[in-house]
């Protein structure tokens, strides 16, 4: 395996294992989303398995009250030697403004209820979200970390 793939896989595994930093307070307005549920799906790389199927469902829009902006996230591991259970999270999402490279970018912060991983997704375009790190930086293999709107 290439070192980049190993590093990216390790970083992704750390994110999925719950090693991300806490929420930030720099909220910003985002492009409008429909009131209905929006679904994004994709398969992320996995160091020890054939991939991680990710299903993210966002409900509400930036005009909604915080408790009305909800999400559910399901992560399923393909052919993992330890056969871990699916990871299921639900909670609220916020819109953050900017990334390290693009101050005008839109980032969604998904914070689960109770304990769980906080996820950060860059809105690449109307149809694509990309998993990014808690400091809002893109990974080198960013095209492998993208989810497509269904």
TrEMBL record:
Organism superkingdom: Bacteria
Name assigned to this protein: Copper resistance protein
Record's keyword annotation contains Transport: no
Signal peptide: 1-20
Keywords: Signal
Species the sequence originates in: Halomonas heilongjiangensis
